[in-house]
């Protein structure tokens, strides 16, 4: 077992054990409610803030969320289709996995860095629940409490509306409230993406960042952070790509113990990798068992390509990468300082805010209880179908979808952990 690799998982395990022990021992003093596998800390604070935001322009919020209802329905259908399609690779490359900031597992689609990941995850939780709260108050629904929760090992937050008020609300009002959380997440994702595009347009010759990829049988699956955005022609060109930087090395991969995070790759087997396009053209033609020579800023290293955990017909190196942007020559040193301490960290943070808010936003729209998509789906069906029939449909769909999700998460995450040994 690689102790260094497994450490982040142990930190999470120890942290959650400590939280549960303290919560159970001091539940009265800390005012914590324990309901089965759920810990909850309720408060009435921040209700005034939510009221203020909701009443600042209720007409805007209603229009905004009325537009959000069809957007939610679109992503509900998209996510449902994606989950069903993922069944074909459920036991080879599960598409739904438990992603923890700072933890990298073999076969995992992405690796979220610890600090930016935690901050991005916090934005997901806060924005989602405040979205529900704001629309609840716009629609005249009282908020009973606000709080934090822990479902076994999964952290979260909640805004608890008055259920009687919700039941008395019009159907359109309910739809707005149910859709609000995911629409707020998707809106924050869109804002982050827009800012990233502006930064690229202003400063960088080619800003590239990765989002979770969909594994398609027969398609190359080597680059773990696929290029999704690439804009050229900066207005204030101060940076340019100079090689490929290794963000991290996947544990127990062919590159583990040879290559290291922070290295900059200049060529592979004599082929230049000065930018993402060149890098992809090289790695997508690598064969299983091929010996690869990496020329980096820290020396020359050899790696033998292995078998991709998600596709046994494709080669695998086991590194997560991004373009290494450097300062253009002739610019004052202050540009380099600003880039290193402000621009790059900001780009990294915005990238993960986009990725996590988009991913959680659309997954939460799955038509399964108790997800918002399940409530939304159920309310839509009641327009034409009796309540009894609606319950049968939603109950059946909920069982099927949660079975797929749980099996995919348990198998995908468990498989990754076992690969560490």
Notes on the protein architecture:
- By secondary structure, this protein is α+β, with helices and mostly antiparallel strands.
- It has two domains: 38-198 and 359-418, no CATH class; 239-327, PDZ domain (Pdz3 Domain), CATH 2.30.42.10.
- 50% of the residues lie in helices and 18% in strands.
- The protein has helices at 3-25, 27-30, 47-56, 58-85, 114-138, 163-168, 171-203, 276-283, 333-363, 372-381, 387-418; strands spanning 32-35, 38-43, 143-151, 154-161, 239-249, 264-268, 271-272, 291-296, 299-304, 306-308, 311-316, 319-327.
- The strands form three sheets. Strands 5, 6, 7, 8, 9 and 12 form a six-stranded antiparallel β-sheet that branches.
- Mean pLDDT is 82; it is low at 1-6 and 206-233.
Number of domains: 2
Structural class: alpha+beta
- Low-pLDDT regions: 1-6, 206-233
Number of helices: 11
Q: Rough shape?
A: globular
The string of secondary-structure elements, in order, is HHEEHHHEEHHEEEHEEEEEHHH
Overall mean confidence score, pLDDT = 82
Percent helix: 40-55%
Distance between the termini: 5 Å
Find the count of extended strands (DSSP E, 2+ residues).
12
| Percentage beta strand | 15-25%
Q: Roughly how many Å is the radius of gyration?
A: 24 Å
Largest sheet: 6 strands, antiparallel
